[in-house]
Amino acid sequence: MENIVNKKVCGWKNLEVGKKEKIFSFCDKYMDFLNEAKTEREAVKLIIGKLKNQGFVSILEKEKLEEGDKVYYNNRDKAVFAAIIGKDELRNGVHIVGAHIDSPRLDLKPNPVYEDGRLALLKTHYYGGIKKYQWTAIPLAIHGVIVKANGEKQEICIGEDEKDPIFTITDLLPHLSQNQNTKKLSEAIEGESLNLLVGSIPDEKNDSVKENILRLLHEKYGIREIDFYSSEIEIVPAFKARSLGFDCSMVSSYGQDDRVCAYTLLEALLDSRESGITKVAIFADKEEIGSVGNTGMCSENFDYFINKILNLKNINHVGALNEVYCQSKMLSADVGAGLDPNYQDVSEKNNASFIGYGVELNKYTGSRGKSGASDANAEFVAYIRGVFEKNNVKYQVSELGKVDIGGGGTIAYILANKGVDVIDCGVPVISMHSPYEVTSKYDIYSAYEGYKAFFESFQKVDY
Ligand code: MN
Ligand code: MN
Fold it and tell me: How many A from CA of 438 to the centre of ligand 2?
């Protein structure tokens, strides 16, 4: 008897000729994307640029929609929806793949600039689930926008060019850390001590380092201190994405949660064959803080986008939106936790994902007794398995970690609440949410293959 045992084999083994080269060159472009898109706004710019190059137009410019039309919706420069209209009727559902483009980071406070200990610093407020100690004593860059009261928008990016200065958050020297060392890891570095060092030369006239920095900012960007009120400035690691390991098999970079799924989704959408079904891509904001606000997936902006499609196809009626959702299928494209050899005790090895073993499916997320979980129906899991197996997409089915150790969630439940069949499907990551997250190039390519195969599939789920 063959195949009665589910043997898990590393993806790098038995690769067909030329596949490794294909994977590596795909990931070279992915690393370029990571270096160019360190914030949600930068990701939106790149994604829309690429969509436009491929013939997508803003849905707001369309007067009607026909089979083959390619449209996108830019939600406030921070989130994007895109769709390729299929010939199949929308009431038979659409195929959605949804990733998020925000990542954990430090935001500037609205009154950031101050002087202390004869140095100039910026106050930050962390965004998303970070381990604070990881953000000290590393090179940091400043990205974002400042919008003046007259609406004039100033984009800022300092610390990425080799010639730029960088910034840092200082840490205590070990010689004087006796007290700090006795504290719990979660309390040793406080949120209020994540202050960014930005200058040390005092003003010639009044001796103020703060004023000297404000003068420099005014000279260079024409901004005044009050303009920080209407700014969104993010502090992110200044280092670049790199190949990792003697075998160059992995990628190390900031922001892979969840731009690894965003990038593979974008490529899959653009490369996918026409299948009849309408394909929809979501690039969401605010996932890391609960998908809240009008750029997060809990807002009704996505309903608006789908309604817009129904209107432009002239097939909208009361209940049409629900009809679309209840017949639709979705891959919630978000990262999972790869087993970390240094911290194996949080994983249950039968149900952990291993980097290099293919794109991961999480049937459910949540914590404790599956609290907050979106639990995919067995019939739908079978459908996705069928699609992947038919297209030779290597996948693994796993959980985040041991029961009762913790938990997490994605945007899956939000679409599931609307009636969509959803399963989490993404790339396993080691050191998730850290300034330098690790992924396997094999899994990155598997995610691309998986999303593409899903977009190209068109059967009904057999309930
Ligand atoms: Mn994520
Ligand atoms: Mn995350």
Answer: 13
- Under 8 Å between Cβ of 336 and 426: yes
Which of the residue ranges 6-10, 100-104, 363-367, 444-448 would you say has the lowest mean pLDDT?
Answer: 363-367
How far is the C-alpha of 51 from the C-alpha of 71, rounded, in Å? 9
Residue 158 to residue 307: CA distance in whole angstroms: 40
Task: Calculate the CA 31 to chain-centre distance.
Answer: 14
The DSSP bridge pattern shows strands 196-199 and 153-158 to be unpaired
408 C-alpha to center of ligand 2: Å?
9
Would strands 366-367 and 407-408 be described as parallel, antiparallel, or unpaired? antiparallel
Number of Cβ within 10 Å of residue 395's Cβ equals 23
| Residue among 254, 262, 253, 268 nearest 426 (CA) | 262
Cβ(323)–Cβ(92) under 8 Å?
no
Continuous H helices in 231-359: 256-271, 301-312, 320-327
pLDDT of residue 1: 61
For residue 433, the CA-to-ligand 2 centroid distance in Å is 6
Ligand 1 centre and the CA of 410: distance in Å? 6
Distance 258 CA to ligand 2 centre (A): 7
Q: What would the pLDDT profile of 395-424 be if each residue is shown by its tens digit? A: 999 999 999 888 888 999 999 999 999 999
pLDDT digits (tens, 9 = 90+) for 171-193: 999 999 999 999 999 999 999 99
**Ligand 2 centroid to residue 331 C-alpha, Å:** 16
- How close is the Cα of 25 to the center of ligand 1, in Å? 24
Beta bridge partners, 253, equal: 437
Residue 323: the pLDDT is 97
Examine the pLDDT at 2 and tell me if it is beyond 80.
no
The end-to-end CA distance of the chain, in Å, is 30
Give the burial string for 355-383 (b: 16+ CB within 10 Å, else e): bbbbbbbbbbbbbeeeeebbbbeeebbeb
What is the CA(424)–ligand 2 centre distance, in A? 13
Residue 24 has pLDDT above 90, yes or no: yes
Q: Which two tokens stand for residue 207?
A: 């001796």
